[in-house]
Specification:
Pfam families: HxlR
InterPro entries: HTH_HxlR, WH-like_DNA-bd_sf, WH_DNA-bd_sf
Order of helices and strands: HHEHHEEHH
Protein name: Helix-turn-helix transcriptional regulator
GO molecular function: DNA binding
Strand order of the largest sheet: 1-3-2
Radius of gyration: 15 Å
Number of helices: 6
Keywords: DNA-binding, Transcription, Transcription regulation
Amino acid sequence: MLEPIKTYNTAVEATLEVIGGKWKPLILFHLTFGKKRNGEFRSLMPAITQKVLTQQLRELERDEVVERTTYNVVPPKVEYELTEYGWSLKEILHLMCRWGGYPC
């Protein structure tokens, strides 16, 4: 069954639907510095649980902000990177970092 098309009152509301929450902006910020593997995210964000990390990455992948690449090797290797759509968020994410008082 098709989901109904969501409507938003503002573009900010639509943006927050995709990148809002506690972890998504951090995941996206770290990806602006290049591809990351699961363990790298866990090192960069030690407070995130594996379950939440997986959920957030799946949602970002579903929304076409992040691309997942699986390599057919042993042990399995999976990398995440920003899509072209995801890269359009770089300036916003770095502005948020500077606004928070940290050099980026």
